[in-house]
Write a structure and sequence with these properties.
single chain, 75% helix, globular
Length: 77
């Protein structure tokens, strides 16, 4: 059961990275670096918020993550 949850969290994390990358018209690897090297949003926000965020629609999730990234000082240029 625990492995199934871990897989769903991983799948959700990839979904977030890919959709934020699509929104920013960037490479997913580049967005991953923004979420880990520039801000730690992945570890401190996306993964811990899985239980709440994964129930929302794609647009809400992307906008929410972008908002958190901006608050953490991520540069999108």
């Amino acid at each position: 059961m625990e492995n199934n949850h871990a897989y769903r969290v991983l799948e959700y994390t990839v979904f977030c990275i890919e959709n934020v990358a699509r929104h920013l018209n960037r490479n997913p690897a580049e967005v991953y670096k923004m979420m880990t090297d520039q801000s730690d949003v992945l570890r401190t926000y996306i993964i811990p918020s899985y239980d709440v965020l994964h129930t929302q629609d794609r647009e809400y999730i992307v906008n929410d993550i972008l908002s958190v990234m901006m608050k953490k000082g991520v540069q999108f240029q």
